[in-house]
Amino acid sequence: MSQLAPLLPYHRVNILTGTRTARLVEDPAEYAKLIAKAERPLLVLGPRLLKITLGERLLLEYALDIAKIKNIPTCATATVKSKMVELGVKPDSVYDLVEIINALKDPQWKGVRKEGNHGLVMFFGFRTDLGEQGLSVLKHFAPHLKTMTLCKYYYPHADFSLPNLKKDEQWKAFLEGLIENLKKE
Amino acid sequence: MAEIKELTKKLKEVHERIKAEIPWEPIGHTPMPEIPDLRNWDMKLLQTYKPWYAPFCDLCCFCTYGKCDLTEDRRGACGIDISTQQARFVLLACLMGASAHASHAGHILEVLIEKYGPDKKIDLGTSIDLEAPNIRTVLGLKPETLGDLKIAIEYVYKEVTHLLDSTAMGQEGSCLDYESKSLHAGMLDHVGMEVADIAQIVGFNYPTSVANTPLVDLGWDSVDKTKPIICFIGHNPATSTVVVDYLQENNLYDKVELCGVCCTALETTRYYSRAKVIGPFSRQLFYVRSGIADVIMTDEQCIRTDMPQEATKAGSALIASIDKVMYGLEDATEMDTDEIVKKMVEEKKHFAILDPKKAAEVAVKVAMAVAPQRRKGWITEQEATEMSKKCSLCGMCETACPNLFEIGRGISEVAKGNYEVIREIFNLCVGCGKCEEECPRKIPIFKIMQVGASKETWKIRAGRGPIMDTEIRTVGAPITLGTIPGVVALVGCSNFPDIRDLAEMVDEFARRKYIVVVSGCTAMAVGMWKDADGKTVYEKYPPDFDAGGVVNVGSCVANSHISGAAIKIANIFAALPLRANYEVMADYVLNRVGAVGVAWGAYSQKAASIGTGFNRLGVPVILGPHSSKYRRLYLSRKEEDEWKVMDARKKQIVETSEPSPEHLAYVCETKEKAMVMIPKLCIRKNDTPQGRGIKLNHYISLYKKYMGGGLPEDLPLYVRRDADIPLVYKKEVKAYLTQIGWKPKEPVGLPTLIGTYPTKVPVDSVIH
What DSSP state is assigned to residue B724? Predict the structure, then answer.
């Protein structure tokens, strides 16, 4: 996270963060490596996961696959918990977005499994504007952790982000690639 | 010694200004408080509700030493860090908001004192003796005349200047002190708003001491397009009320339609209930571009700054009526009326006219002259389809949409003859117009949206001003004991994620017998929905400040009546003296009055200052997702933070472990989450077991309804004893509590923060 902005965010209400912008990652294998080597990763799940389907599958199902492969703890925000329970999965924690970010800011926080704060926090399924503001909090006030996004838009305030993907097929391919690569890691 | 002498002299001056010799109540510790006077109270709040900063950008570009990079603990050339920079930004926003209302108040006062003189008595009717709870609490002044209100507004001006000074380069260096200053600005805002609305009620003879104000037409199709139409946009009724007078004096009532967008519309309907409310700010550009208004009269606040260009494009005439917004137009205040009319009609010129009488006469004459020649109506579906065919689905419109909509898809569907998608998008549109600006093919998206715009009309209850003392006497006990589960104030602007959320929230909580209060653009938005019986929430629920009532207090400045109602509960019901006694009032509200603000579409700096003023008074505020862009929230961490209070009766500090209220300024991403946060943020330590049981009943049932079943994860924190558990869920909750090893705890007899931080206020002063 130390390069000049390589591109603009898709929703330009979030335009130009300043000097520090996310590293753009297009290769799912690289994302898988980053996740695999991270210390105590956390997957934070947003309400858009319940509204979007890729192919025949709800976006939340991709998220749960990612969590399951690497036993990554989850944090359900907004109304995500209800759908998770319906799918037979219990979230490791339930906080709203601003609350989990507030906790993550604290390096002494014990994390959702009480094993210590998380080294990598992945965000998936949030409004771009709220998500970007939340990532800004962590960028500025949580130097002890890295952030990553799994949505199809570029998030400048994250440490690692996907590019703006014009077609959902590209996103689907990325997520499937990520899942496959995680299985290998 | 010299310093003591100076202080004494200063206090003497303050006592003169607040007329200390009139002994209506003993004077508290903070008459006309300055920046440091309530700082300890603020710091106490900030200890629990720590600022949460979400910087929009890494840089500071306020001075020529910059731009300064503030990432990774870097400091700017002046030494500022990223937290302090955010806090400074928030303070500036609060000052913009507070000064907008204060200046509005000052202008109205000037107009009314010119007309009636400074000795015009303040009389808010037979049911309101406590006319100005904010002014009395903050200043220690009991205003009896318009001249007294001037004392209050001059105090606000002075403090705002001091606060603004602190934002200059090389001043304040602590984010917490900036937050204390923001809280100060917010408190001042409520004083300024109160001055404005009391002056308006007195000067314009608005309804007061009455709940059942008229139901007024709402929606653009309520406007009769066959008549000349004058549309007011803004907040200040100084000119719109004169237009009404002009119509009356000239027997033109039935000849001209008056309507408005934003708060001037609400103000005008308090003066003249036949005026029509078009809708909130989000409908402004859309309505202007429709060209239906023959004359647009702007006053101040929340008006688009490109109004002359937009009016010209739409073929409407424009009059700017207040000096704060003159758009570079020629000032025609001294020009002959007929000459102005001629130039506006024949040359299509727009003017600034700062004399309300002249502006009113010109507006009516121009509207009557141009209306017969103008085509006014919506485009047809066929026309929209033709216009949409140019869309190449490039997606540029979507990248510019702050509400993240697929506008391009909507337009391309219109091109195929399907209007459903655009109808849905229009309902959610916040009306900024950025999509159209971005379109490389110049497709008139807003015009096309006319086919998606509902032609339905609704009813809104005219704003009623202050809550009556008589109502407070009825509800004071049930609110503080918790048997009325809470007061939910839905306030603020129209940057909603979905405009329909508001009416749903009102319906949900009014049905559950909360007291629901609304104001401003939100008051309009909640009216734009009907139930299966064709009723709006204003027709469905009584207009009383009582359980299950839906109360429209009025425009933005009427928000002061909501904070005023909270203060009234402490003063009228609990009999705590309020005069210059801010800490005691705020402490009472924080610990004992289950009230929560919901600013679901807050966008303006005014909303920032209103909300921050509520926060200082101890009222938590829930914001919609866009409001993370304000850059600052006040959040606690319920498990980690201390929740100590003083039990005033036992004079003992008690660790309650109860996060009530949990946050002071909080953003929710979805309506569903807000529905669950509202009842939780109404919980107070003072609740009786019966009251707590009722509140938890709503918290659990709303959790089950919107979060998909189960029990709230933090429920054990709010159950003190078995008696707190709602009967309906007794078995389920008890099983859960047993499973997690919950232990009962004693409720606090009389919870207060007084005595837990350095203050001159003695603990006994909170005992009533």
Answer: G
Task: Show the domain range for B238.
Answer: 220-373
Q: What average pLDDT is seen over chain A?
A: 92
Cα distance from A183 to chain B (closest Cα, Å)?
A: 32
Q: Is A18 on the interface with B (CB under 8 A)?
A: yes
Q: Under an 8 A CB cutoff, do A47 and B669 touch?
A: yes
Contact A47 B670 (CB under 8 A): yes
What is the Rg, in whole angstroms, of the alpha carbon atoms belonging to chain B? 26
Tens digit of each residue's pLDDT (9 = 90 or more) over B517-554: 999 999 999 999 999 999 999 999 999 999 999 999 99
Domain spanning A24-184: CATH superfamily: TPP-binding domain (3.40.50.1220)
Q: Do B69 and A13 touch (CB under 8 A)?
A: no
Residue B622 lies in a domain: no
Note whether B81 contacts A: Cβ–Cβ < 8 A.
Answer: no
Say yes or no: B158 and B258 in one domain.
no
For residue B239, give the CATH number of its domain.
3.40.50.2030
Residues B199 and B240 in one domain: no
Nearest residue in B to A95, CA atom:
B713
Angle in degrees, CA B83, B88, B92, rounded to 5: 150
Strand intervals (E) in B607-702: 621-623, 632-635, 644-647, 652-655, 665-667
Same domain for B259 and B303? yes
Inter-chain residue contact A126 with B69, CB threshold 8 Å: no
Bridge partners for B258 per DSSP? B230
DSSP B304: -
**Is residue B53 within 8 angstroms of chain A, CB to CB?**
yes
- Residue appearing with tokens 């010119």: B114
DSSP string covering B43-63:
HHHHHHSEEEE--S-SEE-SS
Q: Which of A81, A96, A153 has the most B C-beta neighbours within 10 Å, making it the best mutation to test the interface with B? A: A96
Same domain, B33 and B107: yes
Preferred mutation among B398, B401, B628, B703 to probe A, highest tally of A CBs within 10 A? B628
Residue B260 and residue B153 share a domain: no
* Counted domains in chain B: 3
Q: Domain check: are B290 and B196 in the same one? A: no
Last residue of a domain, one of B356, B373, B390: B373
Task: Please give the C-alpha separations between residue B121 and each of B125, B130, B486, in angstroms, as whole numbers.
Answer: 12, 14, 34
**What is the least distance, in Å, from the CA of A181 to any CA of chain B?**
31
Q: B289, B310 in Cβ contact below 8 A?
A: yes
Q: Is residue B328 located within the same domain as residue B364?
A: yes
Flag whether pLDDT at B1 surpasses 50.
Answer: no
Residue of A nearest to B667 (CA): A98
Q: Which of B204, B231, B251 is the last residue of a domain?
A: B204
Mean pLDDT calculated for residue range A12-41: 87
- How many angstroms separate the Cα of B406 from the Cα of each of A11, A172, B396, B425, B435? 11, 19, 10, 8, 10
Q: Please, which residues have CB within 8 angstroms of residue B346's CB and are 6 or more apart in sequence?
A: none
Say yes or no for a CB contact (<8 Å) between B71 and A18: yes
pTM: 0.95
Q: Model confidence at A15, in pLDDT bands (50, 70, 90)?
A: low
Locate the chain B residue with the closest alpha carbon to A135: B54
Q: Tell me, what's the ipTM?
A: 0.89
Residues B188 and B252 grouped into a single domain = no
Q: How far is A180 from chain B (nearest CA, A)?
A: 31
